[in-house]
């Protein structure tokens, strides 16, 4: 069995972060989202991975390398344009051969991994198996319709009027039967070859398509709100570890990680929090559900429920929360300016100004 990991795409919902960085490499708890997926694949006993890459191919290659650090063997497969998930299967045809495979979207996050799912697929081997989860607004996802027996009878991509609240999670398992399906479908109104259309083709052809409704935690980390929520979830599982320096004037409370080479000076850190190597927190407060990457500076400020990427500084700006701050960012106070009101008033006006 092989894995096909999708690591292309523009990441428009995470701009401006993704103007200069691959969305799959934005970190949660100071580790790239993509790495959690690769670790899940390796834990499931799958070692041959095809990595679909696009405009950010060089950055993905630099981060993942040959895959050996994850116990994997990675083959990079260029996709000139993001033309849909079914198109990714088409361009990966030579790599996949006639093997079964798991397709994993590199910006998805699943607590607990995929080992049980892969084991079930290997044991029962349907033509396709999909993961589903209940969501409050399914219009933003691929949506599955099940019959009274729980059998998949229909799939729609981002429907205006969903037939259920069951959204497709970004993990799919296929036998080679899917190759005929992806070649048979036509581009959607979005101009993409949709994997939902290919699975629907299998259903219509009488193939065995099964589903698993997951009850655990899943997120598509394609926007800032979900990224912060995944960061919170991962940080909740931390175990306290102080490898760096915390001076006597500082206090660390709860599940706090201070990596080797990091310094906390005259500050209060309330977990769950991770402070990356080489980072200094001075005269500041860092509150729960915050991850600060390596080589950052937090000075005379308050930070909570946020992600700060490497080589950034926050100096003297009061309180920041619910924020995603990119690499090599400087956050400082605005220069003071005189306070004034500019008015254009008609005749006989009455104005009250609070001073």
UniProtKB/TrEMBL annotation:
CDD domains: G1P_TT_long (cd04189). Residues 2-235 form the Nucleotidyl transferase domain. Gene3D superfamilies: Hexapeptide repeat proteins (2.160.10.10), Spore Coat Polysaccharide Biosynthesis Protein SpsA, Chain A (3.90.550.10). InterPro entries: G1P_thy_trans_l, NTP_transferase_dom, Nucleotide-diphossugar_trans, Trimer_LpxA-like_sf. It holds the Pfam family NTP_transferase. NCBIfam families: rmlA_long. PANTHER family: GLUCOSE-1-PHOSPHATE THYMIDYLTRANSFERASE, THYMIDYLYLTRANSFERASE. This is Glucose-1-phosphate thymidylyltransferase. It comes from Streptomyces phaeofaciens. The lineage of its organism: Bacteria, Bacillati, Actinomycetota, Actinomycetes, Kitasatosporales.
